[in-house]
Amino acid sequence: VGLGVVQAGVVQNIARVYAAQERTLTTATLDADATLIFCEKRDAQPTYEGGRGYQPLVVAWAEADLVVADEFREGNMPARQAPLPCVRAGVAAVPETVTARYFRGDSACHENELLAWLAHPDRAKEPGGAIGFAISAVQTEALAAALRAVGEAQWQTFGTERDGTLRQWAEVDFVPALPSEHKDAKPLRYVGLRLVKAQGELFADGSRTHYHAVITNRALPGAELLCWHRQKAGTIEHVHDEVKNDLGGARLPSGKFGANAAWFRFVLLAYNVV
């Protein structure tokens, strides 16, 4: 807990350095993602990829390249279990100079309490203003059916992968209610992503087409929204790589969960200082 206070303080101090250099940071895009750390510690739990280890959740501030919050977790903890406390800690660590706040996450962040909190009208009353977000949607049967029901003419190509796979987007008529949705909250928007292999080529599962979706409260054009959401791969995944491979975050020193949690937070502090 003490190291968490130090972590937030370091973020505030670095933000003040930016301001002193007349480069005040006014936008904060927070990217959240969990990462696996494999180890053979006796008390480490099995992970979903096999083997044993831990699965810390990290929240990074993209524009500043800083870690603003983390939560060290057991390796067998479901990725979608209670991400809100860590995300809230990250939002709280952002300095008051920020006037535009955003959040991006993968499907592990498609969790009702987090979505309801991000979309709650109270966020707009806070110093940084409303939080615009985009989160990869969990592929339920109902959502999959809604994606397949989108008419062919509605899919718009906005990019091509190196192997020729087309990236297409479309608005999806899918508006499920959140159990804890505020009565004044606006319905969330689903933007579909369709990946289409070139003629004669198939994905590993034998299909030519893959469907995905992003859930959002932003009004950006679909192609722009999907490109913006995809940019998190260049921020939070970079943080994971440097923290684990360059700074020793994956070399846990103890068999004790708390000691390893402290070690990982020290490494994140080092990342911010460097």
Short description:
The chain has 274 residues and is of the alpha+beta class. Helices cover 30% and strands 24% of the residues.
What this model shows, in words?
By secondary structure, this protein is of the alpha+beta class. 30% of the residues lie in helices and 24% in strands. Strand 5 (57-61) and strand 6 form a beta hairpin. Helix 1 packs parallel to helix 7. The mean pLDDT is 92.
- Approximate shape: globular
Estimate percent helicity.
25-40%
What order do the SSEs take from the amino end to the carboxyl end, as H and E?
Answer: HEEEEEEHEHEHEEEEHHH
- Average residue pLDDT: 92
Count of DSSP strands: 12
How far the N terminus sits from the C terminus, by CA atoms, comes to 22 Å
Helix-strand makeup class: alpha+beta
Query: Main sheet: which strands, in order across?
Result: 6-5-1-7-8-12-11-10-9
By DSSP (H or I, 4+ residues per run), the number of helices equals 7
What fraction of residues sit in β-strands? 15-25%
Distinctive features:
single chain; 274 residues; alpha+beta
Write the layout of secondary structure elements.
Elements: H1 2-20, E1 27-34, E2 37-38, E3 45-46, E4 52-54, E5 57-61, E6 66-71, H2 84-93, E7 100-105, H3 112-119, E8 131-136, H4 141-148, E9 156-160, E10 166-172, E11 189-196, E12 209-216, H5 222-230, H6 236-246, H7 257-273
Parallel strand pairs: 1-7, 7-8
Antiparallel strand pairs: 1-5, 2-4, 3-4, 5-6, 8-12, 9-10, 10-11, 11-12
Helix pairs in contact: 1-7
